[in-house]
Each structure stands twice: as structure tokens, then as C-alpha cells.
Automatic annotation (TrEMBL):
Protein name: FAD-binding oxidoreductase
Cofactors: FAD
Keywords attached to this entry: FAD, Flavoprotein, Oxidoreductase
Domain named FAD-binding PCMH-type: residues: 35-217
Organism: Mycoplana rhizolycopersici
Organism domain of life: Bacteria
PROSITE patterns: FAD_PCMH
Pfam families with a match to the protein in the record: FAD-oxidase_C (PF02913), FAD_binding_4 (PF01565)
Amino acid sequence: MIDAKHIETLRALLGEKGLLTEPADMAAYETGARYDKGRAAFVARPASTQETSAVVSYCVKNGIALVPQSGNTGLVSGSTPDSSGQEGILSLDRLTAPFALDRVNRTLAAGAGLRLSDVNQRLEQAGLFFPIDLGADPRLGGMIATNTGGSRFLRYGDVRRNTLGLTVVLADEAGTVLELGSGLRKNNTGIDWKHVFIGTSGAFGIVTECVLNLEPLPRQTATAFLVPAATDRVPDLLLAMEDALGSYLSAFEGMSKNAVAAALAHVPSLRNPFQGGIVPDFVILAEISRTSPPREGEQPLDAVLEEVLAAIWEHEDAPLADAFVGPAHEMWALRHALSEGVKHSGRLIAFDLSFRRGDIMRFLDHMKAEMPAHFADVTICDFGHIGDGGVHFNLVVPADDPRLADAGFESSLREWVFKMAVEDFGGSYSAEHAIGRKNQVFYDRYTPDEIRRLARGLKAITSPAPLGCVTF
């Protein structure tokens, strides 16, 4: 516990709604999305950049460590406190202003505490959206801190590509506020400092506001489930789709049989779309889209997709074994249910990995062959963004498995997976969930000393006080 005088001062800065200290009120903030749980000294909930600055300044001057927390949907223990009870949580959940749409510029100035679903619901009437498609519903600040990608990265890119400006509070004695960037898409007048704060886990400063690029909502879409002739033909299938469809191709999502079966078992309302109810070993959800309304005489997108798939099918040594076009809402419902389905299949040990596109299926095939010999009775339930090389490599252990009582079991499993991913396949141990406590040891191991030295120097300049869970 921290001294009561600090609690009194913070409450005076934030008001009754802005500071939580009761265990029941803090419980949801102390518990992460994947089993991690800590104990907070308090939860500060500023409602503006100015209040955030005041809280940060006070905590820095008094040696109180802060853990910024956005939507708390991450998988790497990056948004929860440790067990000491000495760290305060700084939640973004009340930072919901501004919400200022510039329709001509196609930008949105927004508070970092707004949830993705709320942003896109409010933008829908203007025919626009923030084009990061996720199964979870994070807040904007956390999406920026982790540089989220999502299912339509193939077409729209990640959060970094779609962020034009930031307001950031630094962890120094002044609680310095930086205004970085604006609604300008072109401004080559020096270092683009906003990129220091995108994808760096909140360690260099707390994002309180942002200016986002928006995209026109698709007005026509078509989706299909594709069954590759073999897993090693998936890259050929991806290239064939890109060659035929160009920028129409907006998603190319891979789903393993185990992941799909878990979703179908967990969500009874989902319809099993596969012939005879038999789920293929691996299936691709492909989506194509147009932002223009249908025009008279224009070929519908369903017909375009069917025509392209038929042409691929007819090639000698075709990479496609089966395919069918279906309702987009049903196909995406299955894709978005995968995470929860897998989570309820047993004890989940989740990995967020990325590879060169040509290596992702080789990695998955290798791990499926090797897993039984190294870790028996661990089920691989993978799915992910094949079009950009990302994969959610989920491992499910039976809930009653006695190995779960041994902390060394999960540690050794993580060591093995990351060694294979990084050292043997040249991949990344974190595609879009950043570092956090779970990945700190791997950051320490795989980051060159020169890069770590630069990162420490930059943090000493921007936010010299303890901020977040990552040590650069």
C-alpha cells in the first residue's frame, strides 16, 4: 500500500469518479485477458489530457510507478500491475473526448479511451471506418501502444499506417504534454516523433488523444472459404488470388481444423458450413471488397470471386482443392468466434507470431509434426493473418493436466516455441501484442545491445520515471 496522503491528493486531482481504491472496484483492472492478475495501489481514471498530466507529474515527483491500461485485452501481461500493491494503474477508460470528424480530410480526432466498436459505430453514418478489424474490442490508446494489425492488414495496413497525430503525456516531473503530428498526411519537416510512441507498449509516454486516418466503408463485399490442395500450397493460392484480384483482396485469413472445431463447439448459434459437417484440416477465409456502390451492368463481386476461383481451380496442379462463396456475416462470425472457442477448450497458452509469408505454413507444419514428441497432449489451435504473415499460435492444455501446477512447464513451452519461431524460422515473437512481462525475457535475449542502448537513452529523455511493464 502507498501512503494515504498520496491517495488523498490523487482524489483531489481527479474527483470521486476518477480514483478507485476499493478492492471490488479495482478487480477488473487488476485482471488481464489471459490469466494474469496483479494488485494495484489505486486505479487513476483521468478524463482529460490535463488531468493525465497532473496525475503523472504527481506520481513521478513522489516515486509512484504507473502502469498505463487501455482496454486490457492484451495477451502478454502488459497492462496489469505486479503483485506488490505498490503500482498504480492509469486507465484510459474516461478519455473519450474529443470525437471530431473531418469528413473532407477523412480524419478523426479522438480520445484514446474510445473503444474501436464505438468509433466505428459512430462513423458508420458518414460512410467511413477506422480500418483495423479485430475479434476483441480494444481502446484506441492500446491499439496505438501495440501497433495493432488485424484481419484486414493485407489491404489497409496497421495502426501505424493509419495514425496521423498523437497527444502524449511523458513520465517526467512536469507531466509534459507533447502534440505530435496533426491531420496532415504529408509533413516532412523533421523527425516524425509520433512513431516513437506507436508500438512501444506505453513505455515512452501515455497516449491521450490521436488523429486517425479513416477509410470509406466497403459497399460491396464477397467472401469464400477456400480449402488448399495442401498446406504447402497456401502461398501459391495467396499469390494467385493477389494476381487475379489486386486491391480488391482485403482479407486472407487462415483457420486450422482444431480452432474451427473449438469455435463451433463453443458457439451453438454458428452454422457448420462444411459439407457433411467435416471441417477441413486448414481453411482460408478470403474477402474481396469495393468501396463504390453497385453500378448498372457491373459484375457483382460474388460473381467476380467465383470466376477467379474457377480459373485457379482449372490450372494444372491447382493449389485449390475446394471452395465455396457464402454470406459474409456468417463467414466472419466463424472467424471472430475462434479466439473465444479456443479459450474455452482448456488452459490456453497463446502466442502472437509473425513470419515472412512464405515461411508461415512451413512453421505450422513443422510444429504440428514436432509437438507430440516435445509436449504430449498439447493441442495446436492456430489461426491468423496468412496474408500478412501473422499467426495466433494457440496451444491448449487440458484443464486438469497436472503439468499446469508447475510454473516451469509453461516457461519451457514458451522457450521452445520462441526458439523455433525466431531462431529457426526467422520470425518475430510478437506480431501485434508488443512486449509486456510475458515477453520481456525474449526482448532481452533477441534485441541487439546497440538497439537496447538506444532505447534506454530515448526513454531516459522522454519518460525517465517508471512507466508500464517493459524494461528497455
